[in-house]
Each structure stands twice: as C-alpha cells, then as structure tokens.
Amino acid sequence: METQPWFKLIPQEQMIKWRRYFHAHPELSFKENKTSKEITQILASFDQITITHPTPTSVLGTIKGAYPGKKILLRADIDALPVKEETGLDFASQNDGVMHACGHDTHTAILLATTKVLTQLRSQLHGTVQVIFQHAEEQVPGGAKEIVASGQLHNLDAVIGLHIMTGLKAGTVNIVTDGPVTTGADAFDLTIQGKGSHGSMPQEGIDPITVGTEIINQLHTITSRFTPPKDLNVVTVGKFHSGVAVNVLPDTATIGGSVRTIDEDTRQAIANRIKKIVKNTCDTYGASYQLDYQFAYAAVINDPKIASLVKRCALKVLPKEMVPAGTMMSASEDFSAYGKLAPLCFFLLGGGTEEEGYPYSNHSPKFIIAEDALLNGVKTEVESVLEFLS
Ligand SMILES: [Zn+2]
Ligand SMILES: [Zn+2]
Predict the structure, then answer these.
(1) Peptidase M20 dimerisation domain: from which residue to which, for each copy (predicted)?
(2) Which ligand has its closest atom nearest to the C-alpha of 103?
C-alpha cells in the first residue's frame, strides 16, 4: 500500500455529512426529486463539471480531463426502499415508511467525494470521467435501463460501480476479477382460470388448486432436471393464492415466482420451460391462464481486464488484508444494464460484520453500516480512474 498525495483531497467529514443528510431524507424509486436536486447542487459547487439529467431524477456529471483519452463512467444508485426504519440512529429517516435500507445513501456520498477529488485532479487526466447518480435501482424495470436508453452516454470504455454490504468486514473491497458478481433476476405472475363448483361435485368444475400444485411441482424440476449442475440458478415460487371456503372449489388461483440465473442462455431456457409447463398443464385440465413473464435484471458479469485493474488499484491504496478474494452475491442489480455500453466492474464494499457490531443485512429495518468503510470506496474509485486514464 502506498499513500497517495491526493488522499488529502478526500472530503472525509463532508462525505459523512452528505451521507447522513441522504439517510435522513430517503425517497422511493422514480421519486428521487429532492435527492437529485441536492446532488445537483453539490456537484454544481465543484469546479469544472458539466451537469445534465438523462431522466427526471437522475444526475450525470462530466469532467473533461486536460488531455484527450479514454472515457470512464462511475455509477451510484440513489433510491431508498419502502421500509419503516427501526435503527434508532439520530439521523434516521424523516420520511415515514421510507428508508435507505440498502446503503444507496452511502453510494451517493462516496461518489460525490470521488467526484470532488477528481475535479481537483483534472489537470492530470487523459480522457473523460462521467459520474451517474442513478435513480430507481430497487424497482423493476430499474433506472439503469432508462439511462442507457436515454442515449446520453456515448463511447464509454469502462463502467465501475460498487455496493456496500453488511456481512463483509468493514472497509474491505471485494472484487470478482472474472465472471458473474450478481445473479440476474426475472419474475413471473400466473393466473389460472378454472371453473368453480360445489366442493362435493368436483366433476362439475375445473379445480385451479390442483392445476396450480401440478405446475409448482414441475417448476421445481427445472433446476434439478433441465439445467447442468454447475450452472447456478434458482426457481422460487413465493406466492400461491386460491380459495376461501372448505366446501367450494374456487374459480382461479394465482402463482408468482422469481428466477435467478447467471447465464443468458439458461435464462432464456428457463423462461421457455416455465411457459411450456404452464401451457401443457393447463391444457391437460382444460383450464385457461394468463402468464406475465418479466425479464428484469441480467446478471452483472465483470470484465477480467477492468476488474483486474480495479483490484490492482485497491491493492495499491489499501492494506492487503482489506482486499480479500471477491465473492459473488446472490442478490441482483440493474447495474448489468450498463454492460450494453462498455465492459464492467462491480465490486462489494464491506459495511461491517456481526462480530464488528453490524448484524443486520441490507433491506432490514435495522440495517446499519460502518461509516468508516466509505473512505476505502473513494480511494478505490479515484485510483482506478487515475490508472485507467493515465
Ligand atoms: Zn437493495
Ligand atoms: Zn442496493
């Protein structure tokens, strides 16, 4: 690890103040109006940055380096969750029922601090740095897709993002140097239309509960019988509703589920298999159905070159023990959408373990992170940009 001269440019105290402000004023996905205004104002207080808004509640900053060169995008997501905060922090949410329970407040503060440092290093930069404060990561179809579709991002050579997670040692930078970092997440909703009848005369009806259970049993054979054992995927049925009385066969049943994959072909194959199971089973029983299948977030796949560069940079600015081998997370992220524009690196920033006093996972109403962790996020981002544009 080497101390860099620019470490002293990191606005550490200010960064924690920003983080606490955003934590106290969380806003839901697609409604980040005050958040994006605040970010815009803070960015506007820096020198040499151009600000635009690819969508109503996202903010894009552009820093043109002194010399021509490559172009890199850094991303932070800025939205909060419909969770009622129970942390007891003195800067807890002032917006009842809304909470920064996924740490996007920390992502925002880290990227603001990184941007502030980079604006001051503009005279050394060969190329362009862009910073995107992205809305609506938590709600399908996700803000990343909209930003990519806005057409405001051009000719990018790399995109870097991070996510803070409790469960990982505070301040560690965990980078998978090749391959999947998150799973992709898709979802389906199914309504089976049977025919209601008296519970004592099932032959008069079409029982949607029987059709539904047959479908669910077959869905559970997809992973075990139709995909290779080493190809990670999960098919979960999380909803099954039907009927109200013991002696009435209901008309309809509704089923909903979630599909996680890391391989694009498997993702398509599982969707096709689900459609086939639903159609064939409903046909067999004479039921009709409506199946709504949503392809939501693809898996985030790290590019070996960019991810190795970020890891090298983390090792340069952090003690070795703070850069352990990276592991995948089973959750999903709309960051994958930027893969359409350039090679990606997404890394996990440790927000504290249970032993360190941070026992609650992301999305918990008691989610608290170690604020000292933020600094290592900034150091890793700044050094990665400097090396990429050197
Ligand atoms: Zn989340
Ligand atoms: Zn998140």
Answers:
(1) 184-283
(2) 2
Round the CA-based radius of gyration of the chain to a whole number and report it: 24
227-237 residues labelled b (16+ CB within 10 A) or e (exposed): beeeebbebeb
Catalytic residue among 32, 38, 105, 137: 137
79 Cα–ligand 2 center, Å: 8
The pLDDT tens digits of the residues spanning 164-211 come to: 999 999 999 999 999 999 999 999 999 999 999 999 999 999 999 999
Q: What is the topology classification, in CATH, of domain 184-297?
A: Alpha-Beta Plaits (3.30.70)
Compute CA distances 67 → 71, 124, 335, 389, whole Å: 12, 8, 29, 10
Q: How is residue 52 written in tokens?
A: 């635009």
Any idea where the domains of the chain sit in the sequence?
5-182+300-388, 184-297
User: pLDDT for 11-64, tens place per residue?
Assistant: 999 999 999 999 999 999 999 999 999 999 999 999 899 999 999 999 999 999
CA of 101 to the centre of ligand 2 (A): 8
At which residue do the structure tokens 């893969």 appear? 339
2 is catalytic: no
CA 103 to centroid of ligand 2, rounded, Å: 6
Distance CA 189, CA 278 (A): 11
Sequential DSSP letters for 90-150: TT--SSTT-B--SSHHHHHHHHHHHHHHHHHTGGG-EEEEEEEEE--SSSTT-HHHHHHHT
DSSP secondary structure string for all residues of 195-252: B-EETT-GGGSB-HHHHHHHHHHHHTHHHHHHS-TTS-EEEEEEEEEE-S-TTEE-SE
Residue 138 Cα to ligand 1 midpoint, Å, equals 6
- Confirm whether 137 is a catalytic residue: yes
Query: 297 and 142 in contact (C-beta within 8 Å)?
Result: yes
Q: The sheet that has 59-64: what strands, in order across it?
A: 50-52, 59-64, 126-134, 67-77, 158-165, 344-350, 173-174
